[in-house]
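User: Predict the structure for this protein chain, please.
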Amino acid sequence: MALTNMKVFNEYVREATIETVAQMVEKFNAASNGGIQLSTQGFDGDFFLKSMFSSLHSAQRRVDRYATNTSASSTQLAQLEHVTAKVAGGFGPIEWEPSQLRWVGDNPTIAVEVISRNMAEAMLKDMLNAGIASAIAAMENLGATVTNDIGTGRDLTYSDINNSHALFGDSSQLLVCDVMDGTMYHKLISQNLTNGAELFQAGNVTVVEILGKRIVVTDAPALRETPATSTNDIKILSLAQGGIVVHDAGDLVTNVETSNGSQRIKTTMQADYTFGLGLKGYAWSKSVASPTDAELGTGSNWTKIATSVKHTAGVLTLGQAA
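Assistant: Here is the predicted structure, written as structure tokens:
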């Protein structure tokens, strides 16, 4: 592949991937009812900082018109700092031999379609897995106020999920979708929940609707990981609108090069990308820049800043495999 062809090929792959990701983001946001929001808005630096006012509901008080007119305690008007982390990822290198795979040069549109589609799906999967792992870690760290621990060796039921929703009290209607893996989803289907309508599918991520609630079905590793502090290995994540927000910066950098030195000439393609990750009502620790998967999945790195749990990302149902 000539140098000029490689440059054109490189640009086509990058642009096609960004366009594919944007299309998938739009479809996913609509299908998941906004519980997980994938945004194409990027930001500079290691963190995205946004100020928000704390709740003033506690300023309400009862007044006795006949009591001595003493001074009233004041409530401070304060701003909270919502911190979003920036996560770095990579794709490739993808390797081929131009002498054997002439289809790359003869019909570059096929290569562009194959590489860009697979890269876009891999990036979406990475964003979802990171967001789900972060939300689960933050909620497990917060404890019983946002987690419903069944703690028995039986399958979870839709009633268990409903009891988890009850942790939001009169604001349970703010929970718009439930996230679970494929095994848990099919166990619910076997409990006579047979009215599932598929709304979106990309790679191994499916969004369906059961009894009026959006269900995101994805085999994200965090939905089956057993934390060191318990034996729970089944997790269903119930999210409020905007519970998980992923910012795809659109800063995909790709490079295609052909090299000598092997018995046959090799061509490789590699890519770097970043995305921002934020949780509703939680702030990321600014002491941790460019986090690893392990750091994103460490609950203590996420601090609840919302006054009430009703204004946080959602709730978590925990159980054990039967």
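Confidence is low (pLDDT under 50) at residues 1-5, 51-56.
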